[in-house]
Amino acid sequence: MTVLHTVRVHPSADNLPREEQLAWKMAEVAADPVEVTPEVTEMVINRILDNASVAIASLDRGPIVSARDQALAHAATPGGTGSALFGVHPGERKVSPEWAAWANGVAVRELDYHDTFLAAEYSHPGDNIPPILAVAQHAGASGADLVRGIATGYELQVDLVKSICLHKHKIDHVAHLGPSAAAGIGTLLGLDVPTIFHAIGQGLHTTTATRQSRKGEISTWKAHAPAFAGKMAVEAVDRAMRGQTSPTPIYEGEDGVIAWLLDGPGACYEVPLPAPGEAKRAILDTYTKEHSAEYQAQAWIDLARKLHRERPELADPSRIERIVLHTSHHTHYVIGSGAGDPQKYDPAATRETLDHSIPYIFTVALQDGAWHHVDSYAPERAGRPDTVSLWHKVTTAEDAEWTRRYHSLDPQEKAFGGRAEIVLSDGSTVVEEIAVADAHPLGARPFAREQYVAKLRTLAEGIVEDAELDRFIAAAENLTSLGAGELDALNVTAARTLRTGTKGVF
């Protein structure tokens, strides 16, 4: 039975006992030896496959090259056997775990193409996997250990995302990732509650940053931000294991995160956490992406593809007066025209910016009837005159009902789509709506193992040899059978030499 924990600011004079602090309660969840259910184990495997697919597709992109080069400059430390990097054979080179978390985290996030959970806050819970896996490989853990650690990471991030909004205060969502990844590593290593408590506190303290990385001209740091949180989580656990303590209370203190970065001294949150002995099932509430675009664009891509098939004339800007996408508050203000970002309508904008522009994404999907993780963002695609003309006729509007459904706690009602109202030049209108993406568990074509494997094979084509891909898939699908020290099997080696970038400090 899930327990709601009331979290509010306390003056230092209260001397709030650690046992009453949110970080301690989270640590208790992480240290709870409850068994992982078969359904959760299966979904952990799906997400390991999913992360690998998007990381492989990114191996030669600039941010990954940079992060990998940095990681390769940091050899494995004496405390373990080292951690593997996506694309690099572990027998050839392994690195220190915090740097593997960094490089692999960037690879997983670069295309914005892995899993998501949206509630009071945004998140990509799959960002927990790179740091937890890196430590698992370095420490010689087993597949069962890894599953337990990942289940914790997902559980705590989802629980925080359900209850504590960060973006309202312009704090980046990775502030929920530092604590969840630290807790997941704690579960993996079988650490005690006090140690995990301090790792969570340090993980939060070092990963609070502003949302400017996802505003205006979006830079390559967007992919680095969660990787940095994962790297900080590894370092936080290392310090905590060495007896180093954290700012306390990190959430509830009068100079803490809630008081000064979030809702302020009068704030009160209700955070749901599993009761003692309750299975960690939150990963089952999350969903992955069929398309390489911000999650709130997934359903709109599917609707645009449908309209392309049924009403091909809508792709012609001369036939269109205007297109208004009525949607949730979050979609309108984060990736829609409500953001007020002129860059969202700029043909010369970065890929990262276009990935967060629903007017652009809807336009291209409407014209092409498809979405591709590279071609749909190509400069020549963004700059096509007919695309630019139609793109500038697309706006978004907040709709109270879609906002309500976005925040609904009922999975059957929760929705991330909206209603498209298209006014043609002749005065006629086309109105269509969609609630969830086709790949969503409640969508037209829900993702299952078959779709995860297909996504992996598609994105790995020409990058990884078939035999190597088959080996990796078999290892992932037999995850709980992997013994201590066998987790290097979860790395994937590229079929060619990976490129290197410009020299830095390291």
From TrEMBL:
Residues 20-265 form the MmgE/PrpD N-terminal domain. Pfam families: MmgE_PrpD_C (PF19305), MmgE_PrpD_N (PF03972). GO terms for molecular function: 2-methylcitrate dehydratase activity. The keyword Lyase applies. Gene3D superfamilies: 2-methylcitrate dehydratase PrpD. Its EC number is 4.2.1.79. Keywords: Lyase. Residues 291-479 form the MmgE/PrpD C-terminal domain. It catalyses: (2S,3S)-2-methylcitrate = 2-methyl-cis-aconitate + H2O. Belongs to the PrpD family. Monomer. This is 2-methylcitrate dehydratase.
